[in-house]
Amino acid sequence: MRYRSVISLVFVLIMAAVTAVPLDAAPTFAATGFGQQWKVGEAFAPNFWGPLATARDGQPEEYKEGANGKRLVQYFDKARMELTDPATGTVTNGLLARELITGRVQTGNTTFETRAPATIPVAGDLDNAGPTYATINGSSLMAETASTETMQASQSLSASGTVGLYKGPYLDDPYAVISHPEAATHHNVPKAFCDFRARVGLASIGYAISEPFWTTVKVGGQQKDVLVQAYERRVLTYTPTNPDAYKIEFGNIGQHYYAWRYNTP
C-alpha cells in the first residue's frame, strides 16, 4: 500500500506539471534565429519577449516579398518575430504598435490591408476602459510635434480619449523630462524611454510614433499613474512607483495583435 501511495503521488505531480503548460504553448522556437534573438533580449531585460511556454507555434503569414507570398512568423507575448527570407536568416520584428493604432496591416514591403484600429487597452489590466490603441489613433498625440527638449512630459490622455494637462504627483520626475527629439518622426522622447531604448536597441522598439502622455490605469487591480508612449513596434510604459527593474515595461502587444488580427470579426 505504501508503494502504491508513492506511485500515485508521483503520477499526480507529473500530471500537475503537464497541465501547468498551456495546451497551445509552442514546444520550440520556429527558427534558430528566433531563439538566438530571444536569448539576447531576455539578457537585456526580464520578460523582454515573454516565455516560450506562452508563445504560439510558428506559422506562415501573408507577405508579398516572402517565398510564395508567405513568411514564417512566431508570436510571443511581447512581440512577433519574422523570417521573410530563409536564405539570409535575417530576423525582423513586426511594426505591431503602428498597425494596431492605425489599423493598417502590412502584407508586404509596400502593401497594406485596412482594418479598424484595435479597441484593446494599451497598458494595465485587460478590463481597463482605456486608453486603447484606437484612442491614441484618434488623438492629437499622433501629430508631428516641435521639439520640447528639457521640458517635462506634461500631456495626459483619458480612457475616453480626451487630451489634457497632467496634474498628478510626478510632474517633477527627472525621468519624464524630454531628452531626445525624434528627428525621424518628429516626436519627443522622455529620458526614461530614451535610456531604455539606447540599452536594448532601436531594432526591437522602433521610432516614437506618438507624443508621451500620462494616464491612470488599473495594474493588478490598483490604480496607477503611468507615462506611456507608442513606438513602431511596442508601447512603452514608465511607472514611477514600480521597483527599479520594472519601472519600464511594455504590454503584451504580441497577444493583443494576434487577438486583433485573427480573433476580431
Question: What does this molecule look like?
Answer:
With 265 residues, the protein is α+β, with helices and mostly antiparallel strands. 24% of the residues lie in helices and 24% in strands. The protein is built from six helices and 14 strands. It has a four-stranded antiparallel beta sheet with strand order 1-2-3-4. Strands 11-12-13-14 form a four-stranded antiparallel beta sheet, covered by helices on one side. The chain has a two-stranded antiparallel sheet with strand order 5-6. Helix 3 (96-102) packs across helix 6 (253-263). The longest helix is centred in the N-terminal third of the chain and has 18 residues, at 2-19. The protein is globular, with a radius of gyration of 20 Å. Residues 1-23 have low confidence and may be disordered.
